[in-house]
Amino acid sequence: MEWGTKVAAVSGQAQTEVQTTPELCGTYRHHIDEKGRVAIPAQLRRHLPEGSVVAPGPEGRLMIWPPAAWAIQKELFQRTAETPAQQRRFLRVLSGNTYPFELDAQGRLLLSARQRAFAGIGDAVVFVGLGEAVEITADHIWQSEQPELDANEFTQLWDLVHQRGTSASSSPA
After folding, report:
1. Is 67 exposed, middle or buried (0-12, 13-18, 19+ CB in 10 A)?
2. What pLDDT, in 10s, does the model give residues 64-100?
3. 93 lies in a domain?
4. How crowded is the C-beta side of 62, counted as CA atoms within 13 Å?
5. For 9-47, how does the pLDDT look when each residue is reduced to its tens digit (9 = 90+)?
6. What is the CATH number of the domain that holds 85?
7. C-alpha span between 41 and 49 (Å, rounded)
8. pTM for the structure as a whole
């Protein structure tokens, strides 16, 4: 499915157009070779169009942003600035550390030494699909932050999210 494809959604007798995008989801662990190259999981790669970028992210992560989502991020940085000088600084920090998402013939991404240092990446990374973007995190960081999925804890999280969620949510309860 292409980004922004419209599909018909049927609810009872009414039919409406819904804007959809492929969902970037799942968790994938991959090793980095001695040159800093890492294979991008095919399940994510097929949904990352030309023009995607690799940018610094919060909490010492790298982010892969498709073009439309990247444009939103840049806009947030621009709108948040209170002065033109601050806007230039924000954009320097963001755009100056962002690189095109370019893969070699084997579907590998080269992470520079600077990118690996920023994210604390050693010999393995974890790709995490976050819906509209992909997070790249150091394997050792991911392992330290991710306890085993506990059914009771997830149920509590689910209930909290759905209690605080909007009525526009169409998830099953």
Report:
1. middle
2. 999 999 999 999 988 998 999 999 999 999 999 999 9
3. yes
4. 30
5. 444 554 445 444 568 999 999 999 999 999 999 999 999
6. 3.40.1550.20
7. 14
8. 0.78
